């Protein structure tokens, strides 16, 4: 018991109302019931399904690395079999891998942008 403010019974109009966590307070101080408005806020037919850009770029980089290493080593072995002079085959493979990785990352980014535009068009 505090001596500074007297306790008031719960049925008096000056008692402070307790709000539940699922209720919101409106600008006038009244408690609004969110259950009635939940169906207005979330419409499952209008949910946007945007692509994850990081996943697209990661897959593009991994595919580009694999394709670049495999194709670079294959082209190097073809050059050796054909007796074409390659001074530094390792440099050729690394430059070829960097080029294919860049190409595949750009292609994956383009696919992500196309998927994003397609998700916006359905709205």
Automatic annotation (TrEMBL):
Organism field: Isoptericola sediminis
Taxonomy, superkingdom: Bacteria
Region (Disordered) residue spans: 1-36
Name by which UniProt lists this protein: Uncharacterized protein
Keywords: Membrane, Transmembrane, Transmembrane helix
Residues spanning the membrane: 55-79, 91-115
